């Protein structure tokens, strides 16, 4: 860590862990069955209901007191909430927390001193089942609209990099993402800011951690690159939603650096969450899909196969080939017995 902050460590790190797991034990890997990364839809700070765990694995969800800090969450990939009050923290101290969930939120009331959040995510189901680590992990944070009293740094191998200043957070809450390798020591470092008054301040944000495949949508350098045939076939099998539809309109949000694609769905092949819903008495469903503004998406004729992921409660685009092109790719892979999963074509 860089010099000049003048903080001292505030005791041993606190871990967010499931019931029955002894303190200091390794979080291990996710089972081959049970919730994978992003398998639960966030339903507020109390978390969400996971799919059943296999025998011998810790159950979820849990809610417990960890040395004065209220911790609520689900073991594995579901939401974890942390409430911490700076009123009980010594000025100049650093409280340390270890986060093992793939999604979560944190609220820091009356920030004082600093918090150090060690990122120790569990492996996604796909890589855990193969006994392999992901080549890289992508972390995204989204500050609340009322984020006040602190600033967030990325700590990578002891070096601090400013991710979010208090001034930036007072604007519209924009998502910040960064990638890191599994062997790197990475943490989020929250430093309280000085204020003359004692008005109520809350430094709150949500976070997501993603493995190899679904980290693609979070990185600007990758999000606009067209998917190759292999990526399209994998997207059909692993995405949160697979929708055949037409582009109705495209709305650009310059301030948020996003484009919102309004889609009329012709067929819903898969949606893990209710993203597309029928409108009125019509049998057609409509929904919105987000992508980066720099990708330059424009309305066009014809039908597309939209695939993507749930990202902070919103649908984000991954691959979107024209449907006729997808049919050719899928049929060629099917004849060569190289398709990773079966898809019912029209």
UniProtKB/TrEMBL annotation:
It is found in: Secreted. Residues 52-61 have a biased composition (Pro residues). One of its GO terms (cellular component) is extracellular space. One of its GO terms (molecular function) is hormone activity. Keywords: Disulfide bond, Secreted, Signal. InterPro entries: Meteorin-like. It comes from the Eukaryota. One of its GO terms (biological process) is positive regulation of axonogenesis. Residues 1-68 are annotated as: Disordered. Its main location: secreted. Belongs to the meteorin family. This is Meteorin, glial cell differentiation regulator.
């Amino acid at each position: 860590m860089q010099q000049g902050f003048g903080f001292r460590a505030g005791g041993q790190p606190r871990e967010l862990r499931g019931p029955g797991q002894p303190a200091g034990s390794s979080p291990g890997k996710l089972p081959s069955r049970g919730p994978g990364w992003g398998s639960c839809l966030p339903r507020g700070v109390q978390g969400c209901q996971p799919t059943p765990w296999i025998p011998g694995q810790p159950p979820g969800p849990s809610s417990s007191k960890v040395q004065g800090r209220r911790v609520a969450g689900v073991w594995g990939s579901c939401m974890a909430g942390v409430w911490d009050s700076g009123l009980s923290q010594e000025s100049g101290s650093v409280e340390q927390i270890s986060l093992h969930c793939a999604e979560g939120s944190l609220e820091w009331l009356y920030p004082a001193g600093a918090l150090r959040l060690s990122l120790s995510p569990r492996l996604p189901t796909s890589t855990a089942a193969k006994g392999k680590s992901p080549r890289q992990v992508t972390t995204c944070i989204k500050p609340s609209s009322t984020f006040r009293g602190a600033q967030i740094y990325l700590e990578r191998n002891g070096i601090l990099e400013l991710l979010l200043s208090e001034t930036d957070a007072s604007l519209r809450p924009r998502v910040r993402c960064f990638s890191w390798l599994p062997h790197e020591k990475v943490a989020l470092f929250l430093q309280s800011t000085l204020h003359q008054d004692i008005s109520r301040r809350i430094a709150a944000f949500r976070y997501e951690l993603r493995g190899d495949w679904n980290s693609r949508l979070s990185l600007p350098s990758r999000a606009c690159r067209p998917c190759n045939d292999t990526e399209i076939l994998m997207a059909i099998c692993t995405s949160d939603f697979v929708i055949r539809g037409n582009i109705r309109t495209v709305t650009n949000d310059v301030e948020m650096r996003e484009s919102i694609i309004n889609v009329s769905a012709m067929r819903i092949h898969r949606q893990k969450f209710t993203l597309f819903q029928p409108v009125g008495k019509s049998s057609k469903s409509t929904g919105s899909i987000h992508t980066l503004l720099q990708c330059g998406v424009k309305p066009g004729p014809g039908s597309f196969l939209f695939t993507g992921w749930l990202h902070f409660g919103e649908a984000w685009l991954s691959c979107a080939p024209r449907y006729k092109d997808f049919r050719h790719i899928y049929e060629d892979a099917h004849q060569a017995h190289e398709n990773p999963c079966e898809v019912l074509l029209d």
